[in-house]
Structure formats: C-alpha cells, structure tokens
Design a protein that fits this description.
This protein is mainly alpha-helical. The protein has one domain: dinb family like domain (Four Helix Bundle (Hemerythrin (Met), subunit A), Up-down Bundle), CATH 1.20.120. The protein is about 60% helix and about 5% strand. It has seven helices and two strands; from the N terminus they run αααααββαα. The chain has a two-stranded antiparallel sheet with strand order 1-2. A hairpin with a 7-residue loop joins strand 1 (about 115-120) and strand 2 (about 125-130). Helix 1 (about 5-35) packs parallel to helix 6. The longest helix is centred in the N-terminal third of the chain and has 29 residues, at about 5-35. It is globular and about 50 Å long.
C-alpha cells in the first residue's frame, strides 16, 4: 500500500497546528493564572543561540504553508512574521489552517517528482524532488519548530504532555 503526498502533508500539518494552537492557549492561561507577563513565554528560548518561542511558531507555520504550496505548485502567501502576542500567533495559525483547507488531494498527489528549489540563487540553494522535499526537509523542519515550541513551554512550567503535543488524531 502506498501513501499519497497529500496524506503525508496537509492533514499532518493541520493536526499539529491545531495542537500547537491548543498548547499556546494553555500557555496563555498559565501566564494569566500565575500572573506572569506573557512576553516571558513568548520570548523564552531553550538556549541563548536559539530562536524565541514566537519565532519558533512563525517558522513552523511558514513550513506548513510553504511545503503545501510548493507541492501544489501555487504561490506562497507572504506574511510579515511580526506577531508579538498569543492572540497574534493564534490569528496566524488560523490563517494558515484556512489556507491549508483550500488544498484538495489532487493538487498535491502525483507531485513526487517535481523539482523544488529552496533559497534559489544563494549559496544555500538546495534542489529536491517533491517527495524528498516533503520527507527529508519540510516535515523534519516543521516538527523541529513545533517540538521546540512545546519544549520551551514545558521547560517554563506550562503543564502540557504528549497528548497536548499530538492533538486530536
């Protein structure tokens, strides 16, 4: 039995973005309950040379929309990535979930062999087939940033567990 590119991408992104939204809700509620300035969480990092939580969320969202758009060969929506609050991050996630809802399996399935070029014309340019882009680059990058967001919050005392990370499936 084979699995389609669509099945391995859009539903996975949606599941994890919904879970990420729920985790952010828990973080905001925790900050309120403990009288902690929300920016403490939003600017928290696991290590000084890593991006803060707000940027981790932005990058995760960018990969969800970017991978899906590239596989479907449609124009990537461009967002400013200037969110600074939980509400703005939630709005960003909502916007990308709506974007993902616009994809049909037929737009992505069968695109295993298309060429996807990241950072074209730069020293960091990489070329992938559609399948390799999804499986060896896009999904790992997406999961890294979702996981790092979760880890930052857990490290800072937000009571989240594996069920929160996984979301509804």
């Amino acid at each position: 039995m084979t699995i389609s590119l669509y099945a391995a991408s859009v539903p996975v992104f949606k599941q994890m973005l919904n879970a990420l939204s729920d985790v952010l809700n828990k973080a905001e509620a925790h900050a309120t309950a403990k009288n902690i300035d929300p920016s403490v969480f939003l600017q928290a990092r696991l290590y000084p040379d890593m991006f803060p939580l707000v940027r981790q969320v932005q990058i995760a969202v960018d990969f969800a929309k970017g991978v899906s758009a590239r596989l479907a060969e449609v124009e990537l929506p461009k967002y400013d990535d200037n969110e600074t609050t939980f509400a703005e991050l939630q709005a960003l996630i909502t916007k990308v979930l709506a974007f993902l809802d616009g994809f049909a399996p037929a737009q992505i399935d069968g695109k295993e062999g298309i060429e996807i070029v990241t950072r074209p014309g730069t020293p960091k340019e990489k070329r992938f087939t559609g399948q390799a882009y999804l499986l060896t680059y896009g999904l790992p990058q997406f999961f890294f940033h979702v996981t790092t967001t979760y880890a930052i919050l857990r490290h800072n005392g937000v009571e989240v567990g594996k069920r929160d990370y996984m979301g509804a499936f």
